[in-house]
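[stage:ingest] chain + small molecule (pyridoxal-5'-phosphate)
[stage:ingest] validated
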Amino acid sequence: MKRCYFDYAATTPVAPEVLEAMLPYFKDRSGNPSAIYAEGQLARQAVEHARASVAGLINARPDEVVFLSGGTEADNMALSGVAAAGCKGRHIITTAIEHHAVLETCHQLEKNGVAVTYLPVDAEGRLDPAEVRQAIRPDTALVSVIMANNEIGTLQDLAEISGITREHGILLHTDAVQAAGRVPVDVQALGVDLLSISAHKLYGPKGVGALYIRKGTRIVPIVWGGGQERGRRSGTENVPGIVGLGKAAETAVSMMASEAARLAALRDKLIAGVLAAVPASRLNGHPSHRLPNNANFSFDHVEGESVCLNLDLEGVSASPGSACSSTSTAPSHVLLALGLPPHQAFGSLRLSLGRWTTEADIDRVLAVLPGIVARLRAMSPFRNQ
Ligand SMILES: *Cc1c(COP(=O)(O)O)cnc(C)c1O
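[stage:predict] done
[stage:export] C-alpha cells:
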C-alpha cells in the first residue's frame, strides 16, 4: 500500500533537485571554505551562492544571512543574542503559541534575570497587535512573534506589529520556519529585524538553517570559535547542507505561487470533507489567515495519539495536534492558548500537506478517518460525558 504522508509540518523529504545539488559537496568538492587553495574557494563560492539564494527568498541582502544548524539555533541566537547585547534593556515580549525553540529559550533567559511577557492569542490563534503596544515597557528590547504557527498554521500580521515596534525602537524577530517557502516572506514588507529559517521544512536537509539579521542589528553570537560567518556563527560551514538550503530556496521562489494555490485547494477539500463526515469535530486555527498546507482538527472525546496510530495502520502518516512532544501526553500549549477545553485539546490531529500530496491522498484520509474516530469514540469511557 502506498503511504500517504501528511506530516510536512514536521519535516519535508529532501527534494531530488536539492539532493542533486548537494552531492558534489560530499565528494570532489569537499574543501573547507576558509581554505585559500582551489578546493576551499570552490566551497566558498558555493556557500556565497547559497547565501544569495536564501536572501532572494526573503528579499534580504546576502550579508544579512547567517547560516547555522537549523531553526532551533536561529531562534536561540535571535533571543539570547539580542538579550546579551543588552542595548535597550532586559525585557522580551513573545506569545503563548511560540515553538518550543523560542519558549524554552525564554524560560532560560528568565532564569538569568530577563523579564518575559507571554501574550495571549484569540480563539483562532491570532495576536492582536494592540496587545504588543500595551505590553511595551521602557526596557523592552525585543518582540518575537511566530509568523505561521507550526501546529495550527495561523498567520500573524507582522507588518502591523513592526509598525509598533519601530515606533518604539524595539527589535522584531519572527520564527518563519513554517512560513518560508510556503507563503511570501519579505523582510522589508514585514519590517522584521531577525527571521529564522530551517532547511528541512522547505525540502532541504535537516541540521541547517539561517538567521536573517538586518544590517545594523546588535546581536552577540551564541557559538564561539574560529569566527566563521563574519564572526557571527563559528564552526566550519556545513557546506553540503548550506548548498541544499540554497537550492531549496531557489525552488521555493519558482514554485511558491502555484504550489500554494494547489495545496490550498486540497486543504480546503480536506477540511470540508472532515468536518462534514466526522461528528463533533472542529477546525483549529484561523479559517483564512492560515498556511495553505495546514489542517488541524479536534475530535471531542478521542485522543489524537490514538487517531494517529490508527491512521498509521491505514498507511497515513500524521501527527497529533500536540506534535513535537510525542513523548509527552500533555495537551498542546498552542491548543490550550486558543482556549480549547482539555477534552478537545487532547483529541487533535494535524494533517499537513506538501509537494507530493495528491487528491488521491486526501480521498484516502476522508475514506478512513471518520470510521477511526467513530470506533475510538465507541470505546471511549468519556463518550457519554
Ligand atoms: C521545525 C521548527 C523549528 C525548529 O527547526 P529545526 O531546524 O528542526 O531545529 C522551529 N520553529 C518552528 C515553527 C518549526 O516548525
